[in-house]
């Protein structure tokens, strides 16, 4: 992760990362310390699979803590979008003209993107094309498969946690 690069997050995304960090530091570190202690008490560490597994888990937890701390250190919460204008933190209902169906996206920063949950990054082709538009606007998104045509039906502030 590039140092100094701002990580744009929604308020919900920031809260989620802060909760995960707290859980890792307070609960998971304690749990793994107990597992390591119990494994040590079993004797010979050179052939102790539980000890090795616990140490691997400990390493993964510590790496995740560092990752989250770096994300939070460079986090910028985006909450100040003009009402009715698409920005990070918005839930957008679109009409897909080709498939003649409605689709709903949550516009989030790249660190929160998850297409399976309908969360698209402001840096993705669709996300970039949608930014700063309002309900009623027609939008064309250039993709590798060709242009996709949308009509913006509704723009709401997302209150998703």
Automatic annotation (TrEMBL):
Domain Transcription elongation factor GreA/GreB C-terminal: 83-156
SUPFAM superfamilies: FKBP-like, GreA transcript cleavage protein, N-terminal domain
PROSITE patterns per the UniProt record, alphabetical: GREAB_1 (PS00829), GREAB_2 (PS00830)
Top-level taxon of origin: Bacteria
Domain Transcription elongation factor GreA/GreB N-terminal: from-to ranges: 8-77
Coiled-coil region: 14-71
Pfam family, one: GreA_GreB_N
GO annotation, biological process: DNA-templated transcription elongation; regulation of DNA-templated transcription elongation
Key words of the record: Coiled coil, DNA-binding, Transcription, Transcription regulation
MF terms (GO), sorted A to Z: DNA binding; RNA polymerase binding
InterPro entries: GreA/GreB_C_sf, TF_GreA/GreB_CS, Tscrpt_elong_fac_GreA, Tscrpt_elong_fac_GreA/B, Tscrpt_elong_fac_GreA/B_C, Tscrpt_elong_fac_GreA/B_fam, Tscrpt_elong_fac_GreA/B_N, Tscrpt_elong_fac_GreA/B_N_sf
Similarity section: Belongs to the GreA/GreB family.
Its job: Necessary for efficient RNA polymerase transcription elongation past template-encoded arresting sites. The arresting sites in DNA have the property of trapping a certain fraction of elongating RNA polymerases that pass through, resulting in locked ternary complexes. Cleavage of the nascent transcript by cleavage factors such as GreA or GreB allows the resumption of elongation from the new 3'terminus. GreA releases sequences of 2 to 3 nucleotides.
Protein name stated in the entry: Transcription elongation factor GreA
Gene label: greA
